[in-house]
Amino acid sequence: MQNKFPAFITIIGFFILLAIACKHTPEEIAKPIVPIDTTTVCDSVHVTFNGTVNPILQAKCVICHNSTTTGGNIDFTKYADIARIAENGHLMGAIEHISGYSAMPKNGNKLSVCDIAQFRKWIADTTFTIPSGGIPCNPDTVYFNMDLLPILISSCAKSTCHDVVTHKEGIILTDYNHVMQTGGVNPFNPGGSKLYQIITNNSGENFMPPPPDAPLTTNQIQMVYKWIVQGAKNLHCDNMPCDTVTITYTATIWPIIQDNCKGCHTGTLAGGGIQLTDYATISAAAGPTGRLYGAITHASGFSPMPQNGALLPDCYITQIRKWITAGRPSK
Ligand code: HEC
Ligand code: HEC
Known about the structure:
It is a single chain. The chain is mostly helical. It contains 14 helices and no strands. It has helices at about 5-20, 25-30, 50-60, 80-85, 90-95, 115-125, 145-155, 175-180, 195-200, 220-230, 250-260, 280-285, 290-295, 315-325. α3 packs across α6 and α11 crosses α14. Mean pLDDT is about 85; it is low at about 10-30. The structure holds heme C (2 copies). One heme C binds near residues 264, 271 and 292.
């Protein structure tokens, strides 16, 4: 009973305020109430996978969804995985926090309204048919895991240099995330990237790899350059053109060994005491003991190679097998 009177006054007061507030002149109403901030305008119309969607996934999701940490068995470095969950509704369910789906980013803030609108637009616009045989590889594109990482693992991420344990100067070059976090990479700008500077500035005191290791080859340096110019992305493809007919030591086998193995199999610290530096040493390792082929196919009884790296692509394994079967020709 006691409270009724003040409540009544409050309600009357509210209506008086409402009446005053509503008495606008036409000019006042025409004024824009919130200035338009062009920096936060959301473009949910011109949406592409490479320009819009993939950068969000790489920035906010790939940390838990990659080839080593595959949350929910989803790897956002693989287009096929992204396409699968985009098509079956799990992607929208997860980012819109719809019940029945795990809310994503897990334990993080919900994506912005703009990000979500862009995902929705991209899914609406896209037919998710993945070509049989997977995503074709473009010969002009650098694919980080396939083309660049093996060079970094064999020449830089060795156990006394830039692996996770030693991490000289805080630099770890064992995988994409570490390279981006610690390698001083400035996407699109090789000259402004530490990773590129130290492999090219052979008069500087920090020139890498340090002697007695050999400098990277011109082709390897070009690979780093091209990767950075292309935006230092973590792109994936499944279907590389593979010539399994014309196989030569010089044009086929040597480039594979040079980029994937030689860095660890040279000098006095060569892995397992095995040198893989020229035709004679490679041919010997690939000879009757079957060690080289056993190692690259991860056959039991052999140490799996490349050490700390992924299996070589099927194409390379096939080419090496055919070269061995053909009697390891030297040309
Ligand atoms: C902190 C780690 C983490 C982050 C960041 C993260 N995820 Fe996940 N995600 C997971 C885990 C773990 C699972 C497996 C299911 C679970 O544990 O909830 C998962 C599952 C999913 C699923 C399957 C959900 C379902 O119910 O089927 C989708 C889709 C997904 N994540 C998308 C994303 C997207 C998109 C982002 C970025 C916006 C993201 N995730 C960020 C860890 C993460
Ligand atoms: C990161 C360094 C590293 C890379 C890259 C690497 N290796 Fe090795 N490799 C080693 C070490 C260390 C050993 C000896 C220790 C061991 O057997 O695990 C070894 C051992 C081997 C052996 C002997 C295996 C056995 O069981 O007898 C062969 C053969 C070999 N490597 C071939 C290769 C080939 C071919 C490649 C490239 C496709 C390669 N390695 C890449 C470090 C490496």
